[in-house]
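W.,

You were right to be curious about this one. When I first looked at the sequence I had no strong expectations either way, so I just let the prediction run and decided to look at it fresh. Below is the sequence, 243 residues in total, followed by the output.
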Amino acid sequence: MEFKFLENLGREFRDTVLRLLRDYSESLFLALIMAFILRLFVFTTYKISNPVMEPNLKLGDFIVGYKLPYGFNLPFFDSHYGQTTPRRGDLLIFKCPKTPELSCVRRVAGISGDRIEIRGQRLLINGRVAKYVRSNLKPSIALKGPEKLVAIEEKITGNVRAILISDKDELGNFGPYIVPPESFFALGDNRDFSEDSRHWGAVPNNLIESRAIFVWLSIEWLPQQDGSFTSRLRWERLFSLVK
């Protein structure tokens, strides 16, 4: 009798599991298809592995990019579909011009036809000089070194963003440079430690992958006296909008 009871209990459990699988398999399949479509056409993810966008994007940030404003690429096809005209101030994820198998994230400083100059670390767009004030943002602890980095707010053409500058002023002067058609001029916010359009030239619009919208995860690496690193979660940055 006891074995019969256990056999019946096992059969009932198996039937329950099979019924649940049948009931939810269709929903699970649809959810997987929806996630695939969103990943393919709507959202992308990117890990910040260098300090070129400090102080706004920090080492260890994981960001989400929104594809729809700039179109999308179909798998196995080179064609780009949808709108690809960037706006000044947008923070874009795009294929790196020199290494297209990798992705870069930079800010749009100029669009087609703009005249870009940098004089004494001051950005000029079409002859208009950016205004600067001190910023409350701080660079990551991992960036502290012999060179002094200062965070300032840069305001031009209606856009305001924080940037980092150093005392060296190695890339303090640039241009003038006219942005060619169907392209944009990209700058890193960590102005003196960024490889960008000052090195590559303008970036073709068809290399744009998405616009960065928010940080979904952020891990800070803290240097120790013995040369090792420890990590901590930056709770204050989770699901924060990028600027």
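Here's what jumped out at me. The mean pLDDT is 80. And, maybe more interesting for your project: The chain has two domains: 1-43, 48-241.

Coffee later to discuss?

I.
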